[in-house]
Each structure stands twice: as structure tokens, then as C-alpha cells.
Amino acid sequence: MRIGLSYDLKETVAIQQTGCDDAYEEYDSPETVELIAASLETEGHVAVMLGGGREFLENILRHQVDFIFNIAEGRGTHRSREAQVPSILEMLDIPYSGSDPQCLAISLDKPLTKKLVASAGVHTPKWCVITDSQGLYQKEANGFPFPAIVKPAYEGSSKGIRLTSVVEDSNQAIEVIESLLGKYQQPVMIEEFIAGDEVTMGIVGNSPPRVLGMMRILPKRRDGHFVYSLEVKRDYLNLVEYECPVHLERKVLHNLEHSGLAAFEALGCRDFARVDFRVSPQGIPYFLEINPLPGLGTHSDLVIMAKRLGWSHQGLIAAVLNTALERCPQCVRV
Ligand SMILES: Nc1ncnc2c1ncn2[C@@H]1O[C@H](COP(=O)(O)OP(=O)(O)OP(=O)(O)O)[C@@H](O)[C@H]1O
Ligand SMILES: [Mg+2]
What we know:
D-amino Acid Aminotransferase, Chain A, domain 1, 38% helix
């Protein structure tokens, strides 16, 4: 098959957008795109590079492709940015891998996602959204339990989440909230801080989706609260250890699986996703957020997890592609 690859490269977006020092964190490197293309070609397909933004628009109209493998994060700071490419593909009636625009748009909005996931019976930390700095704390978050974490409402890749994001009282909270409101031009959320194990889960498949595996993220130095922050993700080799498979009680693992799959289904995810949890000291998994477009580069959590479980990069890409192709049998020529 001729498979188009839609993606946004850090270097391309950096020329077009300005912003904070982490503005391009979610975008991909040429190495990641080349790795995915190589995996698709080893599977016997022809990879057609389509890029992102305007370049993608021109290319998708010019090139004939049977299917799109989509990893485009979208442009701007809009909360629906991940839905941009899939929306165009739906308009042009071109099948693609991964979740649909509605799921992608909702999942980047953490408070909205938490509402849906909570209504499916999954535990998620208490939260409160703050939209502007006018009397922000007194009005909206008074009485919020501490410690808490303050984060932008519509970001990923730990953008806006630093070692200083955990706050112990309302004065600290106001300081971080004001700084994030100024920098990220979007609402901010304050969330109950769950001290406990950090576990991320990979899910692949449809009807039914299955848990590919779980990975515990352990700090190498245990001083103070652990946050898998931007600083830690950028220096993960020195700062964390990954444990996969996860050695937690069987009941906790069962509850994690149940919560991850319930979240995947409540949001209408397709093909694959990565779900982040904190497990409280009492063994209760708390849903933090879901990534229906998780990173697929060598240093991404899903790829690290899959490799620990014996998958090659090609095997993972093939699993995602094949589960997506099962949804659209008209794409597969016999
Ligand atoms: N309520 C919380 N309690 C404890 N830790 C938290 C909480 N919320 C976030 N964190 C910490 O901050 C990290 C990043 O938060 P979160 O997963 O919400 O951000 P993200 O930018 O969407 O992440 P990703 O890189 O997975 O897209 C978490 O992995 C966790 O270590
Ligand atoms: Mg996360």
C-alpha cells in the first residue's frame, strides 16, 4: 500500500510559531519520522512523506495514497489542534490511523476528559479550572486540598509542568497559576497531588482494545515529591528508572487495567493510546490523562515499554497499522 505519513517537525514549526521555551516539545524529530517510515517500508508498504500544516494540505491534494499513518500534533495552541489533520482526512474521505477528531480534541482538554472518565467510574484526582487571574484564588479554588499540582489545561509532553509545579499552599498556588496563565494563553488547572507510584499504560486494538503493557516510572533520587516533569523527561536516562513489567500487587494491576480500558472506551479512542496514572499509597489508581496520539520515537514511553516487552519498533508500528486497517477493509487490496 502507499501510506502517507502526516507529522509536524520541531524544526519546521519552530520557524513559524513563537512562544515559551517548551513551545515545540510535542513535535517530532526527523529521526522519529524516518524510523516510522522505515518500519512501514519493512512491512512492505511505500511511505509517502506528507508533513504537516500547509505543506500537508498541498501534499495530500497532490499525492495518491491509500491510507495515512498520522502522528501530526497540529498547529497553534488551540485545544483541538490534534484534530486538524484527521478532520481534513475525514473531509477528503481518506482513511487514517488513530483516533477521530472528536476524541483527539477532547483528550487534549484535560478537565473535559476527566469529567468523561469520572462519569465512567474511573478515579481521577480532584481538580478545579482557573480561566483568568481576576480574584482567581479566592473565587475558584478556595479550600482546595494541598499539596496540589498546577498545570496548563490543554497541553502534553509535560509542557508547563516543572519541578516547581507542586504547591503546598494557596500563596504558592497563586504564583504558579499567574505565571502559567501569562505564558500559555489558556486556562490552568489545579489538581490534587497524588503521592504514589507513577504508571503509564499502552493500549492497542479495537473491539476489544487490549493492554499492551504497563511501565512504572521510578525516580533515581528520592527527595521530595516526584513529578515526571519536563526537566525529568528531557534527562530521563539520568533521572528515572523504568520498570516493565510492573511489580505491583495483582489487584492493583487489575484495577489499573480496568481503569485504562474504561477511559479508552469512554473517550471513543481507536487503535492505540497511552494512559497515565498515579497509584495512591492505598493502591487506588488515579487517572491523570490519556494520549490518543502518543509519541512513537525511540525515547517515547510507549516505545520504551514495548521494547521492554519484546516488541521491535516495526512490530509496534505494524500492530497499530493493522488494527487501523481492520477498521477499513476497503483499503486492503487482495
Ligand atoms: N495530580 C497529580 N498528582 C501527582 N502527579 C501528577 C499529577 N498530575 C500530573 N502529575 C505529574 O506530572 C506529570 C505530567 O503530567 P501530565 O501527564 O498531566 O502531563 P502531560 O504533559 O499531558 O504528559 P505527557 O508527556 O504524557 O503528554 C505526570 O506524569 C506526573 O508525574
Ligand atoms: Mg502524561
